[in-house]
């Protein structure tokens, strides 16, 4: 009788801990869409990446795409994590580059309200149209 009671308790606790793990490690999603221009023309071929920037350890690439012939992009990515994602939109391009090595890269913080927890993306961040001819604060050159 004691063995079956102990077995019942162990089974119960294992189911509870499994449920807690499922809730804790929920999928998180983020999606950003917009249009890129270089002066008055659509910016084709810009690399658009979504990163989870970590305080400790390496940053994690969540998703990547390139802007199309019209400068339009839709980047989506996700990750299972206990901790909230710290998402950054990183755009690498060669607008007004004058043959300088490496790509101009802009790193922008994505507000946490656009990170969805659950089985699918709930809300897109519409970044609108950005003219990459501007020099953005903290813009850098990145060689891949």
Automatic annotation (TrEMBL):
One of the record's GO cellular component terms: extracellular region
Stated name of the protein: Transthyretin/hydroxyisourate hydrolase domain-containing protein
UniProt keyword Signal present: yes
PANTHER family: TRANSTHYRETIN-LIKE FAMILY PROTEIN-RELATED (PTHR21700), TRANSTHYRETIN-RELATED FAMILY DOMAIN (PTHR21700:SF112)
Species this chain originates from: Diploscapter pachys
Keywords linked to the UniProt accession: Secreted, Signal
Cellular compartment(s): Secreted
Family classification: Belongs to the nematode transthyretin-like family.
Main location: secreted
Keyword hit for Secreted: yes
Pfam families: TTR-52
């Amino acid at each position: 009788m004691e063995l079956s009671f102990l077995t019942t308790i162990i089974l119960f606790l294992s189911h509870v801990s499994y449920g807690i793990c499922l809730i804790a490690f929920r999928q998180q999603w983020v999606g950003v869409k917009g249009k890129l221009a270089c002066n008055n023309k659509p910016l084709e071929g810009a690399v658009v990446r979504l990163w989870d920037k970590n305080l400790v350890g390496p940053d994690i690439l969540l998703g990547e795409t390139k802007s199309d012939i019209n400068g339009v992009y839709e980047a989506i990515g996700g990750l299972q994590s206990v901790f909230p994602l710290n998402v950054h939109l990183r755009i690498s391009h060669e607008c007004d580059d004058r043959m300088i090595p490496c790509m101009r890269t802009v790193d922008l913080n994505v507000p946490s309200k656009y990170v969805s927890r659950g089985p699918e993306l709930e809300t897109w961040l519409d970044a609108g149209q950005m003219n990459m001819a501007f020099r953005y604060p903290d813009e850098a050159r990145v060689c891949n």
